[in-house]
């Protein structure tokens, strides 16, 4: 295939839209199938490992001898490096080429996983998560480039939608891995999966090479300064978002200091970029109304996905279910997300972008609202519809949002590519972390409120209280003979039941927050669209003389 690509003469319309991207050749059907397979491997490799760590973080923390709060640092490191990876990767692909850049990244990822397997520790785990975050950014782009080879040039918008959406399927797929396959021997199976996915991506990159790219000098000395400042700021922000609900926002002073330190670091980076002739990040562009609107919508959609990965899973875990018992639920989510990708690919047009984003917001709101009726007896089958709606809404949003951004890049020029890619990565990654932090904090606060209300409603003189305690005491009678000890144990069981009910009510409150925000965004978009249409109708038409 390499020789064929080198001898192929590209037509002007097959030229890549952006620097560092490969040409789009006219391939045989066999090659298109191979590129589709390669795109699938790259897409899964970009998110499968982190998805499995997120799904099993509580068990992993215990195996490593860490508190859950400490283990959440692994997620913060991954998100920080993934969100900022394309600060350097975009220009690296332009200057060194796709293959050379990804050889270095994938080689580092495989080496980090081997080190983690041979010498497991918090330090090696943090190193592996950092490199995994960078590699995920590169693999997501590789998935997109491979998909570009599957579709004809005239279908590039559909290719972009599918390419950027495929990595989202790794999230539900990661939760369908059986624990027995990845948990033995200190979770070495999990690290072997990540190593295998990196090796598979490396093999696909070499066996099914992409067409060439137009290379040239891209890096400037100030690029490194900006990257260091942004990565440092992002690490601090992600650490605060990831650990804040565990150490609590107002109880740990270092959380405030970390957040305060991130502001001058990020501010200095943006100041440097604003003064450069050829910046990495076009700061003033970020302040335009369209881009601010895009950021708001993108963060809200990630909040909806946090409802799925944090709140819904937390509710079911509270009911005593293990991750293996959630496989049918996430299989349903997987199918719904795939259906969302297919729907966008078949129906997306420029004039439908705003309408589809609005529809995605309403669908996410509906899914979250359905979950507000959950009880302590709720099980996965009752959540199939709501979680399918959330999954469908998430992927329904991604395609139109991507087309919105690409349209702005085409208008502004390819120099804005890094700015958009970093913005998109940040809203998706940091937005997801912020969503979990928000819902987690709401759940903690509302649990306290509901616990107090339930305790007040069920006072010691209440006949219902006496009846419940008597019922627990009767159940304990065959095992505990001492009446005093039996009464104390019965009171403890009632306290556990009240706490469980308070947690369920708190999760319902979190679902309500997601529903209200999503519906609010949908109504805002609908109102803005209606206003623009009325304004356009009221403007007098100009008749040429």
Automatic annotation (TrEMBL):
Record protein name field: MFS transporter
Lipid biosynthesis is among the record's keywords: no
Key words, A-Z: Membrane, Transmembrane, Transmembrane helix, Transport
Membrane topology: Multi-pass membrane protein
Location, primary (coarse class): membrane
Annotated compartments: Membrane
GO CC terms in record: membrane
Keyword Transmembrane helix recorded: yes
Lineage: Bacteria, Pseudomonadati, Pseudomonadota, Alphaproteobacteria, Sphingomonadales
Highest taxon above the source species: Bacteria
Residue ranges of the TM segments: 33-53, 65-89, 96-118, 124-145, 157-177, 189-210, 222-248, 254-273, 285-305, 325-346, 353-370, 390-410, 417-439, 510-530
Signal peptide: none
